[in-house]
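Please, does this match?
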Amino acid sequence: QPFESRKTQRLVGSMGTQTNGLDGGPRGSSKELLSALGSAQKKRLFFFTDDDRAIGSHAVTDLLGEAQTVDAVQTWNRSNEMLLTSADKRQSVLVMDTERGVTTNELSLRRERRGWNMTVDSIAPMQKFDQYKSSKEIHLYGLGDNGRTVFHLHHDSRVQDNIEEHVVSADACRKYKSYVFTCQAQTKQGFLVLGRSDGAVSLYDYVMKKEDATCVISGQPGPVTAVDVTSDGSSLVWTTPDFVFFARLGDEHWVKGKKEKPRVMRLDVSEEDQERLGLLPAQPEAGTAGVEEEEEEDAEEDPLEWLPARFDAGTAGGAVNVEERE
């Protein structure tokens, strides 16, 4: 068990090849769920229902109609809109109308500072589960400048200004030298978790006020490739290429001041499960060990890498005293 408590968390984790972008959520006013999968090679966005049935796809273009290589996908406004980052247009976030498949806007970060062409690495809702609500406003946390900048982006679609004049905030622009940020997650209150290239995970009560973290969990190998936190901020999971780590958090970990750091637990795959999943190296047949010994020494095995582990979204409804499923 990853946690020594009565409430263990249900996780979705896997090992294999990473995709270019995948997200999902409720679709419009119905109870149907919609998943969106981006394809960088085909420059399209593919859609699926909650029973994995393909229902169509849209070509991804910018406002000028030029095809875009999909990088990250974020559903928004109950999946009526898709927020996309593009490898071809690193300074912008594309807003797509899901039903029509048309890019309706480009949220650009280039206007915040003169001569500052900040690139967008990743985006996430400023408050967890915000994408499941009907909203005309967009509030995002994001990473840019290859992990050296944390920004807050706000856009109100009811304000019909020129695209270059959209309100964009990028207040946490300190340039870190010893590490860069690699991924982020947030609670329902808007507390922020940032994974780092040195293997540490930093917690922030509100990253735009000050750059000092409320708690830094360090000592594990890096880089951190993915991080997630429960909506109430009580549990944390982060992924590296080789390991998955867990920690239970208290209210004190989200407040600045002296405190005991949370105990870190590591997910281990038993040898029995590794054998069942075919993860153990093949054993040589009897009588062939000497013949194949040199070949086996020279052969390079593909490293086993973890994909992101996430908590279940069972608390997205916002009901009182609802816990994420065990």
Observations:
- The first strand starts at residue 11 and ends at 12.
